[in-house]
Amino acid sequence: MRRKSKRSLTVKQRKKQVVKARDKNSKKEQVSLNSPEDLKNDCSEVTNTNPNKRKVAPRSSDQFKVGPDFDDTEVHRKCFISSTKEHIVPVISARIDRGFDLINNEWVGYKRNYFTLVSTFEFLDQPGDLCSNTKFHICDDEGKEVNIECFAIRLVSECCENDVGVVLVQHTPKRDRGPQYLPPVFVSVPGVLPEHEVIKSSANIRNGVKMSQLDRLFYLEENKLKQAKEGSILKGYPKGKVCTVAKYERMQFSTTLNYRKPALLNRRFVLRVELLAVLADEKYSVLASSETPPLIVRGRSPSNY
């Protein structure tokens, strides 16, 4: 009897072993059905279900994406070459390199995120060194000629619904609660807009030699300042660097906007680049402008850094 019970016990154990073996084989078959690419896709699907899970570092190159196109240049006041009285037409080139995404056919940015914008200008069908050879003037409302001291580029913003100006601020390279500044007004001459990849790759350069090389893309070389003809507008420019390309980086919309109010949720804003004619006695006149399509600015970013 003992032998029979022992034999029957052994049979039960064998049955259990067979069942376990079948389970292992079935698991192996299930794993083999999923290729590494399938597993990668599965993981990405799980990850993408929570947009807040992946945070993009503020200095990451992933932050840089080309934003909305600026509209055609709108001329507000005529500009003339003083020596020939020829009417010249300014053309503004501007591009957003960081800070806005196209979501459901709307350009969306976030208050806490920085945006980067570059801009320059040229005169239609005129050489790039025109400022080195001549002077310019505008005519006031009475038709009197007013000399232009220099050209400058300015960045402004306003609400689309009521045309009220919106304050923009620029941060220091350190991302903290340190000093904030209004967007600078760049004393400028005609230039060429660098490619988006140049702006993207130059964002985190801190090496002195490389920074000086980059300056050639954004500022007029000193020897060209010295070579400007006597009596040209460039000879009368203020001392200091003269921009060929105005670069606005680490820009934010002011915190004075209350994004929690329901009335502001659907409001649109525009960014506008203006070309200024700087006149005597610290006066100026807006020669031309170019602006973005309506932008939505939300209070909190999905990355939430």
UniProtKB/TrEMBL annotation:
BP GO terms, sorted: meiotic cell cycle; positive regulation of transcription by RNA polymerase II
Presence of the UniProt keyword DNA repair in the record? no
Bias (Basic and acidic residues): 20-30
The cross-references to InterPro entries, in alphabetical order and at most eight, read:
Fungal_trans_regulator, NDT80_DNA-bd_dom, NDT80_DNA-bd_dom_sf, p53-like_TF_DNA-bd_sf
Q: Does this entry carry the keyword DNA-binding?
A: yes
Question: Which stretches hold the DNA-binding feature?
Answer: 29-305
Q: State the Gene Ontology terms under molecular function.
A: DNA binding; DNA-binding transcription factor activity
The protein's UniProt keywords, in alphabetical order, are:
DNA-binding
| Gene Ontology CC entries for this record | nuclear chromosome
SUPFAM superfamilies per record: p53-like transcription factors
Q: Where is the composition biased (Basic residues)?
A: 1-19
User: Where does the NDT80 domain start and stop, copy by copy?
Assistant: 29-305
**Spans annotated as Disordered:** 1-63
Q: What is this protein called?
A: DNA binding transcription factor
Q: Give the source species.
A: Candida tenuis (strain ATCC 10573 / BCRC 21748 / CBS 615 / JCM 9827 / NBRC 10315 / NRRL Y-1498 / VKM Y-70) (Yeast)
